[in-house]
Amino acid sequence: QLQLVESGGGLVQPGGSLRLSCSASEFTLEYYTIGWFRQAPGKEREGVSCISSSGDSSMYADSVKGRFTISRDNAKKMVYLQMNDLKPEDAGVYSCAGGLHYGLGHWLYDVWGQGTQVTVSA
């Protein structure tokens, strides 16, 4: 069964950058859409970005368009989220998730990682 592990979170100043990584255990990662989600305290989980199984298509929440870039390397079983120009409102626990459907709805995903904390503060 697919298992996902996130890394790369941390503390960054506003305007800074982080790159999150999602490592997959399953050799069939190439069959899965991978999404990135975030949740801040007291807020609902938000779909940030997703990438199709082949990597040909990607989608972003309006709040991160132009600042975040999702990519994947199926040979390395890795998915990345490059986050630039970070804002305090980007803070939260970021999780990657795998599913067989494409989109930013959390209900589309069956397998979830544990999450990595992103803090944006001066």
Present the secondary structure layout.
Layout: E1 4-7, E2 10-12, E3 18-24, E4 33-39, E5 46-51, E6 58-60, E7 68-73, E8 78-83, E9 92-99, E10 111-112, E11 116-120
Parallel strand pairs: 2-11
Antiparallel strand pairs: 1-3, 3-8, 4-5, 4-9, 5-6, 7-8, 9-10, 9-11
Q: Into which percent range does the helicity of residues fall?
A: under 10%
Shape: globular
| Sheet of most strands | 7 strands, mixed
Q: Mean of residue pLDDT?
A: 95
Strands, count: 11
SSE topology string: EEEEEEEEEEE
Strand percent estimate: over 45%
Overall radius of gyration: 13 Å
Question: Termini separation (Å)?
Answer: 40 Å
| Coarse structural class | mainly beta
Query: What is the overall number of helices?
Result: 0
Low-pLDDT segments: none
What does this structure look like?
- The structure is a single chain.
- This protein is mainly beta.
- Helix content is 0%, strand content 47%.
- The protein contains no helices and 11 strands.
- The chain has strands at 4-7, 10-12, 18-24, 33-39, 46-51, 58-60, 68-73, 78-83, 92-99, 111-112, 116-120.
- Strands 2, 4, 5, 6, 9, 10 and 11 form a 7-stranded mixed beta sheet that branches. A 4-stranded antiparallel beta sheet has the order 1-3-8-7, with no helix packed on it.
- A hairpin with a 6-residue loop joins strand 5 (46-51) and strand 6.
- It is globular, with a radius of gyration of 13 Å.
- The N and C termini lie far apart (40 Å).
- The mean pLDDT is 95.
